[in-house]
Amino acid sequence: MTVFKTFLKVLNKSKMPIILYTVILVFFGAFNMQTSENSTSFVASKPDILIINKDKEEGITKNLINYIKENSNIKEIENNKEAINDALFYRDVNYIIYIPENYREEFLKGENPEIEIKSTGDYQASLAEMMLERYIKIANIYEGNIENEEELINKINETLSKQTEIEITSKLDTDNLTKASFFFNFANYSILAGCVYVICLILSSFKEEKISKRTIISSMNYKKHNFELLVSNSLFAIVLWIFYVILSFILVGDIMFTTHGLIYILNSFIFTICALTIAFLIGNLVTNKNAINGIVNVVALGSSFLCGAFVPLEWLPDTVIKIAHVLPSYYYISSNEMITELEIVNFETMKPVLVNMGIILIFTILFMIITNIVSRHKRKIG
Question: pLDDT band at 151, cuts 50/70/90?
């Protein structure tokens, strides 16, 4: 209890910078989450197509051109090789369709005339290609059975007008889950920075010459001393975690009352315990209070950038992600992303998340062991 009482005294004396730093972290965390844009929605777009028609625009040829016009953005470009190639290179068009001379006549004879194309090879060009192939496939099917051109065109248009109904079976609230994931990903920085800053500040106070000498000459075992100090610091870390959980209910909303919300909270709790042991280890290594701010930037900011707290993991280079695997933040943030995609919550679907949680706990135990080794070594030197 002696260590705990001393901890509270030091914490009370340092309350103003602690409160100020925590408020700054909360403000930026909330601000960034509210101003983030949801990039998961799908926006349909039409490909930009250039049609070079060498046939007469009538009958089946005209119908093909009308179909393409209805489902794309038709571009008007000067009909010369250089201008066309430039348009394709600069992505002014995604797809160029060359309708050959006598296309209508040859098609009605069943000769299946070839339509040449040029493409940028991107997803919009692929969409244009599927659209053209759909028309040609349907037209070829009816051409062998219908001799009258007008009836043929009507049948083609009737078939093309039929749209497949799509039923969304997923019940996931993707918008709010993405919002929750962003909040808890950003909390990686806030939790780490808060724990490292405050705990290092407190531990550096315990290392002041008078307090340090009294601790060394006392009968208290260093393991017991470290344990009591760890428990005392745990109170601060848990209070900080509870504060962020409450904030998540306010900012994220009803999704936090679901099973997914509970998993987010559990994941953040396990990471908070790990952050506590990281801070405790750093606090045992650092004696200079002036170095704390720099350490916060290196540990909290560095791991947040490397592990996807600010930039989504899928946008990071493979080299960065490989480096991130040696940090507990990677497994915490990776779990948050997995939770967003959990449609059914059971043991099988939760396995990857549980594995990540287990890895974070291994990191936690490792940091505790290293802290005891460092503390024992320092006491021997002292």
Answer: very high
